[in-house]
């Protein structure tokens, strides 16, 4: 229901309260970061953008853990397929 | 389970029947959707204009009419802002008209230019527009040989509108038609899509988004000439520039006219990162975004590689790619194989592509 | 694109799909509801159902904010937009939503000044630039969007922008889920939880689903692998006879949500005693209005709105579709009287709506599409 897009903070706009310049695949927009609780954000951090506001800071550790899990499933699957092929060759 | 599936098939057939019903304009007023190039535009054209003007030259509803050995087209331009990164309303008008003729397989020759000007419009702006029209005409080897000027009261128009007509000569035996696509044909896109539409959307300033994007407005007549020269007679079935409604709309028009399916691969369709970024941010599908210098070519499989080589030899076709193929079933449908490995139906656009938040 | 492309990998999807199939008990059918329209969009956009075994069906839920806005509220908004010196602003999604007297696009064609904005802050900017106009923001959306509206109102107050007001139509997700769970003909096995709403409300509010209704729920991200993974987690819970709230989208969703966003909402808005949802009827405490302290920026107090109720057409079975009782194509008017060009019911209105999504993407049977795309 709610379009949220990850973007990278490229600059904190000091002359405007609560604004940061955020890049999404090469395009940039000023995004309001006033909803981020006590979290200091800096250039290089990634945030989730919704209607011009940052709703949350993306947690790189959690992102990596999730990806590692997905990759492990992919790896296990590849291994199984490989094992299956080998056993078929042996049978053949 | 079987009964369920049978019932579903019945419903699907019912929908298809409903979709084939004669176009009827239900609205009482014109809305912006009628000008967006999607379904509403088609309904308006078929329900009002085709009903009134019906004749054999008009009926195919191609980009231009082919009469004797001539191609004839008209176009009007109401872009806001008038000046945008990569062009202005002037070269857009000339290139757009040239492209309509080129898509008929013709050599563009002569153009007309009509101007509807708002009281108070700066002459300096008009000079700038005229100069870029002259430059675009010269670059494409066409002449603007007649014109007209009207001025309306302040507030009755948005600065400057340009209306053109164009004629071109058909010098090749190949007759192109959206109805000519055949199963097995290759679907080629001539370059990265969506740059013009996104550039205009951002140039209006309302979205406050910055990007290093420029319009792709360009004359495609040289590109089409090279393509037609490289392929055996009759092997180029259809050419369409992907303007309003974008690539998705053009593919739907071809699939419908040819009663064939078109199957394209999402990950091969060239889209520049900035265009993709802006589309993700705005929730818009680049397949529906307008281009002004990109075309779709349907080419027989036998000539597909030759066509691609010819396109790559021209700066405007350097990133051309074979993005899909024509299939016999399901007729009238455009299917997209997604980068994720799934499949979806790409329908014609309903109304303008609007930025969404949901 | 980072945090996007890595979650769209086809090879991983195939592996995950094999795991999902292996988790399905032979002969058992599973029905999961993705509550959020954004998930519905992802499912269709990427063709995700191609990866799911036949035993798993995804039911598209009520989480599409424009779909659930009752027609009477759209009429009220058009009434406001038609008053002298008013500039109405809203998101692009809202432009085509039909009320009893047409949509914003129709009203615009009749002469109303209605503008599309990307952010409520853009509406505030328009108010600052047009001090002689009354600028109204048509606020829609769940808890994801409400904090942005609230922050904008706070900014308007701080800057003294008195010609800016909000027509508040924000809704809350939990009462809608509860309404679905309380429906007597419910046949769901679990929920894919709305990821972006949860950035604000966190995961705790869903605990009643597991505790009181014995259904598992997995809060999920919006990339296709996120959704496949959440289906995997739901099936794992069922296989292990567990009913819990799990957070698949921990990279974005903190367990406790965003306290600052919640504080902004409760500063500016308060719960309505009840609110009508298209297709679901009246649900108590399911929507927000501006609180009295912000009356100056409350369009409902500034303008005399008709507040008329437009009943959903009787032929429309959106309620059943939203609850997962009927499939879109089983509705009496689906695809004949009710199409995306001439929608009758809520589910056909927005491209996120269950019926519109099915109509646009699924009207040919998957078997036929699969056959056609096989190289």
TrEMBL record, chain A:
State the Gene Ontology terms under molecular function: carbon dioxide binding; iron ion binding
What Pfam families has UniProt attached to this entry? HupF_HypC (PF01455)
Q: Which domain of life is it from?
A: Bacteria
Which GO BP terms apply? protein maturation
Under NCBIfam families, the record lists: hypC_hupF
| Family statement | Belongs to the HupF/HypC family.
Report what the protein is called. Answer: Hydrogenase assembly protein HupF
Q: Which organism is it from?
A: Planotetraspora kaengkrachanensis
- Which classification does the entry list for the species? Bacteria, Bacillati, Actinomycetota, Actinomycetes, Streptosporangiales
- Gene for this protein? hypC
UniProtKB/TrEMBL annotation, chain B:
One GO biological process term is: protein maturation
> Which CDD domains does the record cross-reference, listed alphabetically?
HypE (cd02197)
What is the superkingdom listed in this entry's lineage? Bacteria
Specify one Pfam family.
Answer: AIRS_C
Q: Which residues form the PurM-like N-terminal domain?
A: 62-169
Which residue intervals define the domain PurM-like C-terminal in the entry?
Answer: 182-330
Supply the PANTHER family for this chain: CARBAMOYL DEHYDRATASE HYPE, HYDROGENASE ISOENZYMES FORMATION PROTEIN HYPE
The family assignment reads: Belongs to the HypE family.
Q: What is this protein called?
A: Hydrogenase expression/formation protein HypE
Which source organism does the UniProt entry give? Answer: Planotetraspora kaengkrachanensis
Automatic annotation (TrEMBL), chain C:
Sorted alphabetically, which keywords does the UniProt record give? Iron, Metal-binding
MF terms (GO), sorted A to Z: 4 iron, 4 sulfur cluster binding; carbon monoxide binding; iron ion binding
Which GO terms are recorded in the biological process aspect for this UniProt protein? protein maturation
Q: Which Pfam families match?
A: HypD (PF01924)
Task: Indicate yes or no for the key word Heme.
Answer: no
Q: Which domain of life is it from?
A: Bacteria
The similarity comment for this entry is: Belongs to the HypD family.
Question: What name goes with this protein?
Answer: Hydrogenase formation protein HypD
Q: Which organism is it from?
A: Planotetraspora kaengkrachanensis
Phylogenetic classification of the source organism:
Bacteria, Bacillati, Actinomycetota, Actinomycetes, Streptosporangiales
């Amino acid at each position: 229901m709610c379009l949220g897009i990850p973007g990278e903070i490229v600059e904190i706009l000091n002359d405007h309260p609560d604004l940061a310049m955020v890049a999404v695949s090469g395009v940039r927009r000023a995004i309001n970061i006033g909803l981020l609780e006590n979290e200091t954000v800096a250039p290089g951090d990634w945030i989730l953008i919704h209607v011009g506001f940052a709703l949350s800071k993306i947690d790189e550790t959690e992102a990596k853990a999730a990806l590692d899990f997905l990759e492990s499933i992919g790896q296990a699957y590849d291994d199984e397929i490989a094992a299956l092929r080998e056993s078929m060759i042996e049978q053949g | 389970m079987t009964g369920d599936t049978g019932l579903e098939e019945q419903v699907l057939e019912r929908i298809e029947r409903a979709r084939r019903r004669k176009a009827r304009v239900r609205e009482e007023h014109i809305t912006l959707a009628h000008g967006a190039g999607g379904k509403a535009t088609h309904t308006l054209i078929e329900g009002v204009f085709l009903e009134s003007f019906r004749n054999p030259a008009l009926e195919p509803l191609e980009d231009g009419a082919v009469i004797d050995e001539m191609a004839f087209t008209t176009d009007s331009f109401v872009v806001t802002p008038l000046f945008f990164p990569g062009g202005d309303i002037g070269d857009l008008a000339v290139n757009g008209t040239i492209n309509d003729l080129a898509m008929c397989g013709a050599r563009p020759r002569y153009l007309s230019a009509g101007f509807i000007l708002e009281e108070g419009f700066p002459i300096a702006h008009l000079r700038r527009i005229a100069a870029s029209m002259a430059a675009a005409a010269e670059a494409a080897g066409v002449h603007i040989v007649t014109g007209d000027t009207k001025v309306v009261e302040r507030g009755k128009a948005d600065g400057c509108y340009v209306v053109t007509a164009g004629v071109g000569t058909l010098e090749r035996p190949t007759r192109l038609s959206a109805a000519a696509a055949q199963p097995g044909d290759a679907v080629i896109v001539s370059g990265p899509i969506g740059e013009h539409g996104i550039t205009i959307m951002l140039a209006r300033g309302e979205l406050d988004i910055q990007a290093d994007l420029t319009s792709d407005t360009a004359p495609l007549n040289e590109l089409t000439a090279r393509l037609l020269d490289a392929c055996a007679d009759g092997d180029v079935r259809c050419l369409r520039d992907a303007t309003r409604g974008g690539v998705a709309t053009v593919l739907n028009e071809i699939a419908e006219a040819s009663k064939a399916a078109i199957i394209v691969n999402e990950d091969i369709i060239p889209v520049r990162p900035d265009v993709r970024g802006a589309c993700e941010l705005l929730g818009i599908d680049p397949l529906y975004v307008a281009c002004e210098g990109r075309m779709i070519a349907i080419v027989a499989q036998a000539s597909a590689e030759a066509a691609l080589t010819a396109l790559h030899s021209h700066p405007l076709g350097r990133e051309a790619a074979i993005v899909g193929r024509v299939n016999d079933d399901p007729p009238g449908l455009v299917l997209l194989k997604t980068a994720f490995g799934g499949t979806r139906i790409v329908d014609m656009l309903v109304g303008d592509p609007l930025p969404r938040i949901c | 694109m980072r945090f996007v492309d890595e979650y769209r990998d086809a090879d991983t999807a195939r592996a995950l799909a094999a795991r999902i199939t292996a988790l399905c008990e032979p002969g058992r059918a599973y029905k999961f509801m993705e509550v959020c329209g954004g998930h519905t969009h992802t499912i269709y956009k990427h063709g995700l159902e191609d990866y799911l075994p036949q035993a798993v069906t995804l039911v598209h839920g009520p989480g599409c904010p424009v779909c659930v806005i009752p027609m009477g509220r759209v009429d009220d908004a058009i009434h406001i937009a038609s008053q002298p010196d008013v500039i109405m602003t809203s998101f692009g999604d809202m432009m085509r939503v039909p009320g009893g007297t047409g949509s914003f696009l129709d009203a615009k064609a009749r002469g109303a000044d209605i503008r599309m904005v990307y952010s409520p802050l853009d509406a505030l900017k328009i108010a600052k630039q047009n001090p002689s106009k009354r600028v109204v923001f048509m606020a829609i959306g769940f808890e994801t969007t409400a904090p942005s509206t609230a922050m904008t109102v706070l900014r308007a107050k701080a800057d003294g922008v008195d010609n800016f007001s909000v027509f508040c139509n924000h809704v809350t997700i939990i009462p809608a889920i509860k309404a679905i769970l309380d429906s007597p003909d419910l046949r769901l096995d679990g929920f894919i939880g709305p990821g972006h709403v949860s950035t604000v409300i966190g995961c705790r509010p869903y605990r009643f689903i597991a505790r009181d209704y014995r259904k598992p729920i997995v809060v999920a991200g919006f990339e296709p692998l996120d959704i496949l993974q959440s289906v995997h987690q739901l099936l794992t819970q069922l296989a292990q006879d567990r009913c819990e709230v799990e957070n698949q989208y921990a990279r974005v969703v903190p367990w406790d949500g965003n306290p600052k966003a919640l504080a902004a909402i409760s500063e500016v808005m308060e719960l309505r005693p009840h609110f009508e949802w298209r297709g679901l009827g009246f649900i108590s405490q399911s929507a927000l209005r501006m609180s009295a302290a912000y009356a100056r920026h409350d369009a409902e107090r500034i303008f005399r709105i008709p507040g008329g109720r437009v009943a959903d057409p009787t032929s429309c079975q959106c309620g059943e579709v939203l609850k997962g009782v009927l499939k879109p194509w089983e509705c009496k008017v689906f695809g004949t009287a009710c199409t995306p060009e001439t929608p009758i019911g809520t589910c056909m209105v927005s491209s996120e709506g269950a019926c519109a999504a099915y109509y646009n993407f699924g009207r040919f049977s998957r078997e036929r599409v699969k056959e056609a795309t096989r190289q």
